[in-house]
């Protein structure tokens, strides 16, 4: 089934609801290593996006989401999400639909744009490791249970990195303390992807 | 906390309201937390936009004015404004010739300005150029310029780029001159008491009564050492020697210098520092043009000072001397 602006709108509503339910959970995870506002950024960002009257042009629709996310939060996580959405906006400009088999490619472009903007690398225990795992999992599974595949990849990443130290962003300052704690950004990706189902 | 304020939540917005009320001929506030020049835009002039957290007046907002900047996106105290605000500021000042984003090198500001540039390119087809000033030699070694923070020296980049834009230079030329000025300026600061973020209500770090910290950043970032307070001449010597080691000056060089208060340190003490600086510069045969002594880039009520040195050539000196006017700096 092709994805149009209608499907995006429905997906945003589901993510917003699930992110709202996990607001405290993400804030508490973030408070261990940062300023504890991650749950607010994610919940309010998607809640604002879900209220948008999206354009039929899906590129334009992703741009509207990027802009809205920015208006809600100027935190670096908010800017990173907006950067990923903006990468999709540029890739899909002037189109009214895209196919499920394009999702892996779009996520890869988002991952690369976010790595460039955050001036970070893979393996530093950030949301980008989760996104990277999703890209690889979805490349192997172009149709079928895409959502389950993406959720599993995001969850596995949290598991895989929990015992490692954070090497990027503000959590880097707490590198030692971060060993044994799940990365809040990677958890946020789990919440967002769970909401998509 | 001893601060003159109403509600800490309104600190930034009430400051901006007062700034515009006091100087309506210079500043306008077209939207929430966006300051532009008052009056009409000059068609075909390159716009220059800056932005950053509040708490540093006259940086950043104060330097909007003729021969200087065109607009500023304003964040909370020590917090970056959003990319959306920056994009809005770029749109507000664009006069058809593109916009230079010129600001201090801080992670959040860099990310948000890059994002803003992408947004105005996608939606409005506005051409932008971007430069983050990184003049604080205490924050990282010369080999790692991308990690150096932007401090008081960035006002020289504002002045020189602003003068070039006022003369109707195109975007590439204004950006080139901003980068040249930025590449020619180095700064070093020291602090004796920290500052208080209004919404926190207490200092983010503690410096002992008899202590100073060399190299402290303008948000209280850790410096190179903390220890007993030294005499003014020793403080100046250490700052000057550090800058000399980073970017040596020699006989016949022409420079502008800025002896800057971080907020609480009075002009008297800045001139005590300047006295020693004048001796050091004359010893090596360096000529000083347009010395600046005062509050040009602050950290609210922080006690301390910084020294910035801009190496000049004919091109930079000409632009530095060009007319400029804002509430805090008139040339």
TrEMBL record, chain B:
**Which PANTHER family does the protein's record reference?**
TRIOKINASE/FMN CYCLASE (PTHR28629), TRIOKINASE_FMN CYCLASE (PTHR28629:SF4)
Keywords, A to Z? Kinase, Transferase
Q: Which GO terms describe its biological process?
A: glycerol catabolic process
List each coiled-coil range.
Answer: none
Q: Does the keyword Kinase apply?
A: yes
Top-level taxon of the source organism: Bacteria
Record has Transmembrane as a keyword? no
Q: Name one GO molecular function term.
A: glycerone kinase activity
Provide the protein name: Dihydroxyacetone kinase DhaK subunit
Task: Provide the species name.
Answer: Nitratireductor aquibiodomus
What InterPro entries would the database entry show?
DhaK_dom (IPR004006), Dihydroxyacetone_Kinase (IPR050861)
Q: Which taxonomic lineage does the organism of this UniProt entry have?
A: Bacteria, Pseudomonadati, Pseudomonadota, Alphaproteobacteria, Hyphomicrobiales
Q: Where is the DhaK domain?
A: 7-329
Any one Gene Ontology cellular component term annotated for this protein: cytosol
């Amino acid at each position: 089934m092709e994805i149009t602006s209608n499907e995006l709108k429905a997906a945003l509503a589901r993510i917003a609801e699930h992110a709202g339910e996990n607001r405290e959970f993400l804030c508490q995870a973030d408070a261990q290593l940062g300023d504890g506002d991650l749950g607010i950024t994610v919940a309010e960002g998607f809640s604002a996006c879900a209220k948008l009257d999206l354009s039929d042009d899906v590129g334009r629709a992703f741009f509207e989401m990027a802009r809205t996310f920015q208006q809600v939060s100027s935190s670096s996580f908010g800017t990173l999400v907006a950067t990923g959405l903006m990468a999709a906006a540029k890739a899909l400009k002037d189109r009214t639909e895209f196919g499920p088999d394009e999702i892996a490619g779009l996520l890869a472009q988002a991952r690369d744009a976010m790595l460039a903007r955050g001036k970070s690398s893979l393996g530093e225990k950030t949301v980008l490791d989760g996104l990277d795992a999703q890209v690889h999992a979805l490349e192997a599974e172009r149709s079928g249970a895409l959502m389950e595949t993406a959720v599993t990849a995001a969850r596995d990443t949290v598991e895989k990195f929990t015992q490692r130290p954070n090497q990027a962003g503000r959590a880097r300052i707490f590198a030692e303390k971060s060993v044994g704690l799940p990365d809040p950004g990677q958890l946020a990706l789990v919440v967002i992807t769970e909401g998509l189902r | 906390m001893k601060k003159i304020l109403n509600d800490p939540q309104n600190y930034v917005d009430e400051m901006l309201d007062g700034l515009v009320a006091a100087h309506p001929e210079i500043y306008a506030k077209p939207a929430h937390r966006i300051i532009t020049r008052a009056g009409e835009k000059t068609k075909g002039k390159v716009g220059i936009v800056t932005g950053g957290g509040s708490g540093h007046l006259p940086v950043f907002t104060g330097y909007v004015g003729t021969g200087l900047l065109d607009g500023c996106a304003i964040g909370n105290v020590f917090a970056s404004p959003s990319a959306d605000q920056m994009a809005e500021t770029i749109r507000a000042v664009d006069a058809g010739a593109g916009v230079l984003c010129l600001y201090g090198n801080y992670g959040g500001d860099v990310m948000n300005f890059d994002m803003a540039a992408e947004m105005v390119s996608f939606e409005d087809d506005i051409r932008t150029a971007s430069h983050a000033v990184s003049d604080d030699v205490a924050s990282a070694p010369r080999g790692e310029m991308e990690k150096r923070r932007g401090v008081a020296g960035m006002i020289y980049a504002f002045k020189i780029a602003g003068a070039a834009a006022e003369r109707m230079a195109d975007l590439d030329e204004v950006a080139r001159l901003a980068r040249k000025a930025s590449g020619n300026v180095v700064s070093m600061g020291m602090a004796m008491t920290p500052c208080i973020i209004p919404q926190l209500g207490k200092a983010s770090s503690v410096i002992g009564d008899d202590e100073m910290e060399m190299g402290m950043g303008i948000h209280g970032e850790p410096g190179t050492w903390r220890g007993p307070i030294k005499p003014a001449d020793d403080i100046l010597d250490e700052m000057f020697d550090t800058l000399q080691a980073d970017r040596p000056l020699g006989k016949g060089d022409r420079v502008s210098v800025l002896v800057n208060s971080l907020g609480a340190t009075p002009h008297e003490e800045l001139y005590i520092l300047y006295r020693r600086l004048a001796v050091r510069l004359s010893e090596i045969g360096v000529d000083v043009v347009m010395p600046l002594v005062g509050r040009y880039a602050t950290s609210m009520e922080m006690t301390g000072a910084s020294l910035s040195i801009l190496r000049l050539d004919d091109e930079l000196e000409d632009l530095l001397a060009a007319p400029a006017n804002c509430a805090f700096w008139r040339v």
